[in-house]
Amino acid sequence: MKLTFLGHACVFVESDAHRIIIDPFLSGNPLARLGPEEIACEYVIVTHGHGDHLGDTIEIAKKNDAMVISNFEIATYCNQQGVEKIHPMHIGGAAQFPFGRVKLTIAHHGSGFVTENNEIITLGNPAGVLLTIAGKTIYHAGDTGLFYDMKLIGDMNDIDVALLPIGDNFTMGIDDAVKAVEFLQPKLTVPIHYKTFDLIDVDPQEFAGKVSAQGGDVRILDVGDSLVVA
Ligand code: NI
Ligand code: MN
């Protein structure tokens, strides 16, 4: 399984036969190096309705005839916007797909979406994602504050890679994310959701140092960097 960081909270996950993108915020992302038109995938997983996560989901799904996997409200919204293949689910539920398994977990955050008419509509509850593919388990926490149930997620899952927001202000900051690593006990942690905007400009090296001090492993990925998990 190969995981490529596309910036902010967006990762591209590939196995031999499948391609999945999570939270494809590329247009409007100052750090992104690819545009939505360059993405080829069969599935789009969306953690919540904020623009920096739902992002280019509809465009990518339509162009690739890809399936959107998300909470009921986001999946239904995408369907109303012309996405043909959707798989609605919700927090606590898991489902099997040709590539593996997806389970939605809790996240403490919002899921409001600003429409073209400048109205805010609430697209369900925000979630994290446990993605199992090619025998490996990735936990993408979505946007969230620290919560103690991360310990339960860590106890019940053998997490190979945890993708954790560290940028503070909208999500966990560095110290809370370090505590999250302690709860989750992943083999490897990749920090996400930092530097994209001034409000979340934190130093991932500080996070890496604090996690190593407690015996964990961190890999800082630059935009475009890949990680092979074998
Ligand atoms: Ni958000
Ligand atoms: Mn966000």
What would you say this structure looks like, in words?
This protein is an alpha/beta fold. The strands form three sheets. Strands 6-5-4-3-2-1-15 form a seven-stranded mixed sheet, with helices on one face. It contains six helices and 15 strands. The chain has a single domain (2-220), classed as 4-Layer Sandwich (Metallo-beta-lactamase, Chain A), CATH 3.60.15. The chain is globular, with a radius of gyration of 16 Å. Helix 4 runs parallel beside helix 5 (174-184) and helix 5 crosses helix 6. The model has no long low-confidence stretch (mean pLDDT 98). Residues 9, 50, 52-53, 143, 170, 193 line the site of manganese (II) ion.
Show unreliable segments. none
Q: Determine the structural class based on helices, strands and strand pairing.
A: alpha/beta
User: How many E-type strands?
Assistant: 15
Reported by name, the CATH topology is Metallo-beta-lactamase, Chain A
What's the name of the CATH homologous superfamily? Ribonuclease Z/Hydroxyacylglutathione hydrolase-like
CATH architecture: 4-Layer Sandwich
For the largest beta-sheet, the strand count, sense and barrel status come to: 7 strands, mixed
Q: How do the helices and strands follow one another from N- to C-terminus?
A: EEEEHHEHEEEEEEEHEHEHE
Counted by DSSP, the helix tally is 6
Structurally, the number of domains stands at 1
Return the CATH class.
Alpha Beta
What overall geometry do the principal axes of the alpha carbons give? globular
Strand order of the largest sheet: 6-5-4-3-2-1-15
Fraction of helical residues: 10-25%
Mean pLDDT: 98
